[in-house]
């Protein structure tokens, strides 16, 4: 397609930095320097305008609250579809509910049999737990077979693992000091509960065991037992925490916690770690005499674990004796308490040595990976801000090392080709 150029144009070449005309372009002739008006009182918004804006904002907030209230009122309400179905179809729906009742009964039976299976294997593990307790306390020395099995397991995860040297002497102690205190402190939630004052008492913790409630009990559940040696804090040799399930499984097919029951700790005089004591002076208004009064205040402590929160009854909730904030706080405390009990049963007791060494921490929070965004799309310039760590991949144990990288294009380049380039 050809283009038409008027003959009165002397040079049809478009202006460039080399042939820009000396005269200003028409678009620049009518422009002037931008000016900023002076700030005076006349330019300030009037008070009535501000009042109108506030009124509009309040009106919008009120409308938003009204809409949200309407939507909240629709939750759980029927759309009318089920009610509009013919009678024969409704009868089929009721029949499905009847079938589901039988499915739920089988699910309850399945979960109870699973619980019995847990009890069976818990009993089978008791000799191993007793052996563990004896090694921790130093009552028994580990055998060469046990040591070799542990080293072989470590080599599977870390090929660079170096076997331990032979024992120095027959009389050397093999007891593991502060085993359970260290294991509990390596659990994220429990570490936040253990205070410095608690640590001295928990040094006397010699074992943690689990016992399932017998079948004769109306409610299924389990009991966690903390065994202590003689100490300066309390008289109890065993502190227990019992978790009870509801009789029927929940909607999702799992046992639902009902409540927890703790041991009453027999504290020795002035050794209650769940309280702090203050001494205050009081003056008698009539006689002007003073006296010293000792008052106790609740204190944060791991041993509050044995005084679990009590869920409010339905009557208390319906009567309004407890407000929503208090109810929410209690529910949060109960959830944390139940989770700690579950972790003790499923993680800490069966894998105590992993919590002692800290290996278990490598597997904590793996479900939270979705909370982090992929950083690969960020600028590579940020990498220059960080220095390379002296620790290479070869120095990292296999269980902490990432998967091996597959060979890319750079791995397939011929060195001779690089020289030619």
TrEMBL record:
<feature type="compositionally biased region" description="Acidic residues">
    <location>
        <begin position="364"/>
        <end position="395"/>
    </location>
</feature>
<feature type="region of interest" description="Disordered">
    <location>
        <begin position="1"/>
        <end position="57"/>
    </location>
</feature>
<protein>
    <recommendedName>
        <fullName>Nucleosome assembly protein</fullName>
    </recommendedName>
</protein>
<feature type="region of interest" description="Disordered">
    <location>
        <begin position="362"/>
        <end position="421"/>
    </location>
</feature>
<feature type="compositionally biased region" description="Acidic residues">
    <location>
        <begin position="39"/>
        <end position="55"/>
    </location>
</feature>
<feature type="region of interest" description="Disordered">
    <location>
        <begin position="135"/>
        <end position="169"/>
    </location>
</feature>
<dbReference type="GO" id="GO:0005634">
    <property type="term" value="C:nucleus"/>
</dbReference>
<dbReference type="InterPro" id="IPR037231">
    <property type="entry name" value="NAP-like_sf"/>
</dbReference>
<comment type="similarity">
    <text>Belongs to the nucleosome assembly protein (NAP) family.</text>
</comment>
<dbReference type="Pfam" id="PF00956">
    <property type="entry name" value="NAP"/>
</dbReference>
<dbReference type="InterPro" id="IPR002164">
    <property type="entry name" value="NAP_family"/>
</dbReference>
<dbReference type="GO" id="GO:0006334">
    <property type="term" value="P:nucleosome assembly"/>
</dbReference>
């Amino acid at each position: 397609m050809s283009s038409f150029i008027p003959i009165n144009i002397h040079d049809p070449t478009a202006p460039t930095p080399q042939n820009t005309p000396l005269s200003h372009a028409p678009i620049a002739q009518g422009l002037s320097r931008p000016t900023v008006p002076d700030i005076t009182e006349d330019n300030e918004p009037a008070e009535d305008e501000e009042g109108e804006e506030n009124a509009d904002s309040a009106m919008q907030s009120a409308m938003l609250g009204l809409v949200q209230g309407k939507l909240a009122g629709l939750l759980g309400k029927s759309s009318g579809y089920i009610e509009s179905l013919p009678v024969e179809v409704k009868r089929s729906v009721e029949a499905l509910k009847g079938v589901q009742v039988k499915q739920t009964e089988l699910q309850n039976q399945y979960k109870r049999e699973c619980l019995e299976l847990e009890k069976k294997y818990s009993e089978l593990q008791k000799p191993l737990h007793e052996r563990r307790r004896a090694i921790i306390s130093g009552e028994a020395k580990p055998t060469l077979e046990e040591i070799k099995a542990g080293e072989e397991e470590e080599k599977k995860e870390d090929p660079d693992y170096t076997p331990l040297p032979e024992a120095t002497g027959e009389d050397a102690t093999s007891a593991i000091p502060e085993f359970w205190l260290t294991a509990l402190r390596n659990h994220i939630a429990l570490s936040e509960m253990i205070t410095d004052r608690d640590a001295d008492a928990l040094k006397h913790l010699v074992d943690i065991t689990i016992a399932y409630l017998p079948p004769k009990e109306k409610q299924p559940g389990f009991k966690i037992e903390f065994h202590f040696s003689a100490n300066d804090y309390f008289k109890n040799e065993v502190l227990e925490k019992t978790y009870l399930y509801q009789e029927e499984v929940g909607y999702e097919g799992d046992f639902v916690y009902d409540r927890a029951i703790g041991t009453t700790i027999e504290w020795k005089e002035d050794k209650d770690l769940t309280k702090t004591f203050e001494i205050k002076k009081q003056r008698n208004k009539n006689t002007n005499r003073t006296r010293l009064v000792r008052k106790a205040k609740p204190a944060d402590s791991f041993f509050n674990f044995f005084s679990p929160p009590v869920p409010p009854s339905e009557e208390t909730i319906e009567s309004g004796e407890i407000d929503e904030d208090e109810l929410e706080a209690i529910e949060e405390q109960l959830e944390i308490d139940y989770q700690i009990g579950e972790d003790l049963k499923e993680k800490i007791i069966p894998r105590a040595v992993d919590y002692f060494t800290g290996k278990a921490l490598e597997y904590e929070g793996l479900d939270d990976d979705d909370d982090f965004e992929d950083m690969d799309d960020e600028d590579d310039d940020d990498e220059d801000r960080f220095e390379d760590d002296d620790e290479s991949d070869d120095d990292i144990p296999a269980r902490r090392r990432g998967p091996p990288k597959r060979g890319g294009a750079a791995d397939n380049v011929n060195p001779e080709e690089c020289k030619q380039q």
